[in-house]
Design brief:
It is a single chain. It is built from five helices and seven strands; from the N terminus they run E-E-H-E-E-H-E-H-H-E-H-E. Helix 2 links the parallel strand 4 and strand 5 (about 100-105). By secondary structure, the chain is α+β, with helices and mostly antiparallel strands.
Length: about 160
């Protein structure tokens, strides 16, 4: 039995492909999922509003054996902050992993990261600010082989709204 994970989109994504990802994301170029359904619904709904398309929630089963691949899991905010900033600057440090797991730098969190990024806050102040935000997770598949091996499409549903 796998772990249920979600991906919010404007498309049904039966066969995720890393090559379609944007660059400069939190954990680099990859296919992102979360264990929080409402978080994925929010991603889908907001993207649908921006593009005028339907919002689609994609549901997957993540094989628990994924831990046998090269996985980076962040356990502290400081290491996470350094990695996210490096990836958002275009550093390819993520390429040495198959899967990266950690908190998401959503709009609220990114405001604090941006203050650090621009040199307006030091690392200590930024880490302190991050403690006040609700923690959500994201799992980035940064290698296509990890997607092909560990992630199975289950279903998709149209999202008409989301709860905050």
């Amino acid at each position: 039995m796998g772990i249920t994970v979600y991906h919010g989109s404007i498309l049904e994504v039966k066969k995720p492909d890393v090559s379609f990802s944007k660059n400069y994301l939190d954990f680099g170029k990859g296919f992102y999922v979360t264990t929080f359904r409402k978080q994925a619904e929010k991603w889908a709904f907001r993207r649908g509003l921006r593009t005028g398309n339907d919002a689609i929630l994609n549901v997957y089963s993540l094989d628990e054996n994924f831990k046998k691949s090269k996985v980076l899991t962040f356990k502290d905010d400081e290491t996470w902050l350094d990695f996210v900033c490096a990836c958002r600057k275009g550093d390819l440090c993520y390429k040495q992993y198959d899967i990266i797991i950690g908190n998401i730098a959503d709009d609220d969190v990114f405001k604090s990261i941006d203050m650090y990024f621009r040199g307006l806050w030091d690392k200590k102040r930024t880490i302190e600010e991050l403690k006040y935000y609700k923690k959500n997770d994201q799992i980035a598949f940064v290698s296509q082989s990890a997607i092909d091996k560990y992630l199975d499409f289950v279903s998709s549903d149209k999202v008409n709204s989301y709860e905050k």
